[in-house]
Automatic annotation (TrEMBL):
Residues 22-359 form the Enoyl reductase (ER) domain. This is Sorbitol dehydrogenase-like. Its cofactor is Zn(2+). Keywords: Metal-binding, NAD, Oxidoreductase, Zinc. Gene3D superfamilies: Medium-chain alcohol dehydrogenases, catalytic domain (3.90.180.10), NAD(P)-binding Rossmann-like Domain (3.40.50.720). GO terms for molecular function: oxidoreductase activity, acting on the CH-OH group of donors, NAD or NADP as acceptor; zinc ion binding. InterPro entries: ADH-like_C, ADH-like_N, ADH_Zn_CS, ER, GroES-like_sf, NAD(P)-bd_dom_sf, SDH-like. The keyword Transcription regulation does not apply. CDD domains: sorbitol_DH (cd05285). Belongs to the zinc-containing alcohol dehydrogenase family.
């Protein structure tokens, strides 16, 4: 978990967690809680969603540049109930329902000092090796990263603030507003939260492109103004770009690439208008060959996104106010048993009609 922890007998609070021990090997085992610091809280975790990165770690013991080298507790999309607070905590009390932001910056480097704590080189992030995650009965976390939920926001919706934050932050980076048309490439979980976010920010027309008919139908149900089925190969990019532009019916101001593959980035560059913005949210490939010079000659701005910063209050407000409804994204629910964690990850990894798989502890 964010504050650390270890396997073994629990001295003070009985606590169990889902440990990643090896490829396709998840086990529920004891997890010892660290001491509660003066500005920390102890949280009884009630809802945890499965992210694509969790599946990557389970299947390959790695995700991007991060590699699991020793047993690690998994999970980072979470919400729960405050059980205990440190002696300097005044913002929360036991019984408060909270959504947890999973990344702890160092708060002393230049990036943290300038407010870009998501770029902190010493970030401690749930379930990013070697930091333990939050799929556990209880965890200890800084109070400043626990956000109280209004009565009309459920704990499951609180856990959804983590993936929703990616969409919200991407829209912020690209300055999505009532004056920007938006193309979203990729209708997986992140593409769908980007769709919900763009709509909440007021985008007047949103088109979604994907290779999968079911995902496109979900995007349409969630409010996409139009959808375009595309192929997975580059040979049809030019034709598909024209089809996307026709579906939009006007210039595309912002493209949010939520897939991150060579083909999708190439499509984004081709579809976005002169002087528009391409925001790279998905991270499917590390190295790719894309037509960067033609995009630069048209002054298409390319923006990177890494996680998020300062998004939880806005996510909670969007959900509480009804501007965003994340409930349709939660397609499968499981309990917290050895059998359940195996089935839950199989369901998430299997794709199909699964969007967000949620644990209820």
């Amino acid at each position: 978990m964010g504050k650390g922890g270890s396997a073994g007998d629990v001295a003070t609070h009985e606590n169990m967690a889902a440990w990643l021990l090896g490829v396709n090997d998840l086990q529920i085992l004891p997890f010892k809680l660290p001491a509660l610091g003066p500005q920390d809280v102890r949280v009884k975790i009630k809802a945890v969603g499965i992210c694509g990165s969790d599946v990557h770690y389970l299947k390959t013991m790695s995700c991007g540049d991060y590699h699991v080298k020793e047993p690690m507790v998994i999970g980072h999309e979470c919400a729960g109930i405050i059980e205990e607070v440190g002696n300097e905590v005044t913002s929360l009390v036991p019984g408060d329902r909270v959504a947890l932001e999973p990344g702890i910056g160092c708060w002393s480097c230049d990036r943290c000092k300038e407010g870009s704590y998501n770029l902190c080189p010493d970030m401690r992030f749930f379930a990013t090796p070697p930091i333990h995650g939050s799929l556990a009965n209880q965890i200890v976390h800084p109070a400043s990263l626990c956000f109280k939920l209004p009565d009309n926001v459920s704990l499951e919706e609180g856990a959804m603030c983590e993936p929703l934050s990616v969409g919200v932050y991407g829209c912020r980076r690209a300055n999505v507003s009532v004056e920007t048309t938006v193309l979203i490439i990729g209708a997986g979980p992140i593409g769908l939260v980007a769709l919900l976010s763009a709509r909440a920010f007021g985008a007047p027309r949103i088109i979604v492109a994907d290779v999968d008919d079911h995902r496109l139908s979900v995007a349409k149900d969630l409010g996409a103004d139009g959808v375009v089925k595309v192929s997975s190969t580059k040979e049809f990019v030019a034709t598909e770009v024209e089809e996307i532009k026709k579906e939009m019916g006007k210039d595309i101001d912002v493209t949010l690439d939520c897939a991150g593959f060579e083909k999708t980035v190439t499509t984004a560059f081709g579809a976005t208008r002169n002087g528009g913005k391409v925001c790279l949210i998905g991270m499917g490939h590390c190295n790719m060959t894309v037509p960067l010079t033609p995009a630069a000659s048209r002054e298409v701005d390319v923006l990177g996104v890494f996680r998020y910063k300062n998004t939880w209050p806005q996510c909670i407000e969007f959900i509480s106010s009804g501007k965003i409804d994340v409930k349709p994204l939660i397609t499968h629910r499981f309990g917290f048993s050895q059998e359940d964690i195996v089935k839950a990850f199989e369901t998430s990894a299997g794709g199909g009609d699964a969007i967000k798989v949620m644990f209820n502890l």
